[in-house]
Design brief:
The structure holds two protein chains of two kinds. Chain A has one helix at about 15-20, and strands at about 25-30, 35, 50-55, 60-70, 80-90, 95, 115-120, 125-130. Chain A contains one helix and eight strands, in the order αββββββββ. The longest helix of chain B has 16 residues, at about 25-40. Classes of the chains: A mainly beta, B alpha/beta.
Chain lengths: ~130, ~375
């Protein structure tokens, strides 16, 4: 199996990927309008302010939508897998995979609670996957 | 843009359509361009504006021997050509040029002279979507749909109905790739690609191209074909990441683009005789009908199921068979525009009798962009 396609952080996103390695899901929010947002950028996409802060998010959310990809990408193995969007409790959505759960429509119910499951890929990259909340 | 100030005076697709292993991407652009120039009775030296996506306008102009005073390389996916029409209309009105050639060519199936797909791992897409395993549009463009179905209490059969109706239209089009009738059961029993999407809910992958030529309405009368006037235009862009749509249940870009075009055209929805909505997948006509305001949110599936968009219905939709059954090279928007122009000229294989106004809605990327062009065949 070829190595999994992995992210290459940029200066604007480094804090997010470093957070994943350290077991923290880091979001950003605007200090003036308080809006939380994702993916990372050094300003608020709602009001344009550069006064933003990084904070540790709860890592909790719900299954917002998904597909079950029946044609696996070579670096993802040979079995069908869900490509999901999780809606975080703090508001933003993010793409992810669902682990510790059968990859079936019966098991993957929209709005089911999820919790982040950090999954180390190599010494540089840990991906924020999600699992059904215990 | 002032309605009907600009017209389409040349329109053509590539000579061949479907699987074309003996022509490269730029060859398909050129074939379509030469056909459109022949349609308009023009030579390359008569063209002073060029616009294209997929290849650069520099490649296009030089390859055809055109020395333009206007070039537009807007590239926002499959609706780029709607944006090219809009920009060309503005450019002609502003006096930047007189006659604009817009081309598309894509070796979607055969991949002759075609680039490779893929995002840099440091791009937004490469960092925040690609690590999770998407394999092209079938596993990305479809991601919002389970949420949409749940929000409005719809089923997978509602998606299947879209494909069934479009196949009815394709049956009337000799150039359509798939023409045999299908049923909802056929769709629901077809191979699963990315749950809940089955292969008959996904567009074709084919080779082809198309080209348009626009000029000012006052010059349009002197061309051999019946002019098709640009009545209204709109465009918008939303997000490069399907996971970051502002709302999974509707396209913000569709709404902005559609509203602008209808306002510019000064028409009501009841004035529309013919509609094209870029259908890369079966959910696009549902989002399009709702976001353009033909149906209330959640009501498009019933509108289609009840037969309103099929042959003989009150709002004929995707009358060439669409991306699901006619052809889909990758950037399908050009073929939607071609069908609108044929309907306005009165020469479409499945001609809507007496049609005077056609709305053509395009999408780019995975709900990343939108373009809307409204055409009329009535002289100003």
């Amino acid at each position: 199996m070829p190595p999994r396609m992995l992210p290459e952080p940029t200066p604007e996103t480094r804090h997010f990927w470093d957070g994943c390695k350290e077991g923290e899901l880091r979001l950003q929010r605007c200090t003036s309008c308080k809006d939380s947002y994702f993916p990372p950028r050094p300003f608020c996409p709602k009001c344009g302010s550069r006064d933003v802060e990084v904070y540790k998010a709860s890592g909790k959310g719900v299954l917002w939508s998904y597909v079950i990809n029946m044609r696996p990408r070579p670096d993802m193995g040979t079995e069908p897998y869900a490509i999901a969007v999780v809606k975080l409790d703090e508001g933003p959505t993010m793409m992810t995979n669902i682990v510790d759960c059968p990859q079936t429509p019966e098991a993957l119910q929209l709005d089911m609670p999820l919790a982040v499951a950090f999954t180390k890929q190599n010494d540089d990259v840990t991906l924020p996957l999600f699992a059904p909340a215990k | 843009m002032k309605p009907k100030s600009v017209a389409v005076v040349g329109a053509a697709e590539t000579t061949k359509m479907g699987v074309i292993p003996d022509q490269s991407v730029i060859g398909l652009h050129a074939d379509a361009a030469l056909n459109a120039m022949a349609d308009a009775g023009l030579k390359p030296s008569d063209i002073d504006g060029v616009a294209t996506a997929g290849i650069s306008p520099t490649e296009l102009a030089w390859y055809l021997g055109i020395k333009p005073s206007y070039a537009d390389g807007t590239s926002v996916g499959g609706c780029s050509f709607m944006l090219h029409v809009r920009h060309a209309a503005a450019a002609i009105n502003a006096g930047l040029c007189k006659t604009v050639l817009i081309t598309h060519g894509e070796s979607g199936k055969s991949r002759v002279g075609a680039g490779r797909f893929g995002a840099s791992p440091s791009s937004l897409n490469g960092q925040f979507e690609m690590p999770y395993g998407p394999v092209g549009p079938p596993s990305m463009f479809t991601i919002p749909v389970l949420r949409y179905l749940k929000t409005y209490g719809l089923s997978q059969e509602d998606l299947a109905h879209v494909a069934v109706v479009q196949r009815e239209w394709a049956g009337k089009n000799p150039r359509a790739t798939f023409r045999d009738p299908i049923t909802v059961d056929d769709v629901m029993n077809s191979r699963m690609i990315a749950y809940p999407f089955r292969i008959l809910m996904c567009c074709l992958v084919t080779d082809g191209g198309g080209a348009l030529i626009l000029t000012s309405a006052d010059r349009a009368k002197d061309f051999p074909q019946k002019p098709v006037y640009v009545l209204g235009t709109g465009e918008s862009v939303e997000t490069p990441l399907v996971s970051q749509m502002y709302d999974s249940n509707h396209s913000t870009a569709f709404r902005i683009s559609g509203k602008k075009a209808f306002e510019e055209a000064g028409i009501k929805h009841s004035d529309v005789d013919h509609l094209m909505i870029y259908d890369a997948f079966a959910h696009l006509p549902l989002y399009g009908l709702e976001d353009l305001g033909f149906c209330k949110p959640g009501e498009a599936a019933a509108f289609i199921r009840e037969g309103n968009t099929r042959p003989g219905g009150k709002l004929p939709l995707n009358t060439n068979g669409g991306g699901l059954s006619y052809m889909h090279s990758g950037m399908y928007g050009m073929y939607a525009l071609q069908e609108s122009v044929r309907q306005m000229r009165g020469i479409a294989p499945a001609q809507v009798s007496g049609a005077k106004v056609s709305v053509c809605q395009g999408v780019g990327g995975m709900f990343g962009a939108a373009g809307t062009i409204i055409f009329s065949n009535e002289a100003p």
